[in-house]
Amino acid sequence: MHRSWRFEVHGRRLAVMEWGDPQGIPLVALHGWLDNAASFTLLAKLLPQVRLIAPDLAGHGLSDHRPAGQPYYIWDNLADVQALLDELGLKRVALLGHSMGAGIASLFAGAFPDRVSRLFLLDGLAPLDYPAEQLPAQMAEALLRGARLGRRSLRPYASFEQAVRARMGGRWPIGREAAVWLLARGLREEADGWYWRSDLALTQPSVVRLCEQQIAAFLCRLTMPVLLVMAASGIGMARVEQQLALVPQLELELLAGGHHLHLEAVPAAFIAQWIGERLQA
Q: Which residues are annotated as catalytic?
């Protein structure tokens, strides 16, 4: 069973899911792009002794969208994570992040290393970057696409089942049970069909991203133990291999599985075991 609640950050509401023992060791989990807090349902089932706390990041799931016209910069999530920890009264906590959530966790831990006891990162280590020399062209493209956003609209799914099948066969395929978990929180039903709750602005390219040197500065400040689990069929080691040496206490594990390996039974069992052992250490 899970518990759901909300809190307010600067006039916006963020929705939160919790599982496990309310008196257990807290573990704050940050989901990936266009997912939601239900992404951690399977790990929560495997870690009943842990108090697993997962917010829907801004624009995702049941959380409010950012104001119209405001881009979704990855670093803006740090203020929301900080507000969540303050709301919970957690001065220091372990963080778990998947994909985009892993990048957010690394940035937060690099900015506030005294507030993070451990990092568990799943198929992602740091945010995507723009090489400095590419930024002007990337910015122009993002601004032009953003100007066209108001003319875009999504076609609804005719049924919840149709949406489940579509999510199962998406860019990063997942099983049926995992799709149902995510879509139960990620869709809304209207008179003409089922729509994604996530903000369409999330699908736009970033106007600005951090560059390689800035990301390196954050990774060098990850002084806490870091467990990085990469999936054999995920985003690929090529994206992170140049950054591994920057993290002082990095432990790397490679697992067979897809990008959402924490939603697959076999790799999730290994991940849960590793998390449980290290939280107790």
A: 99
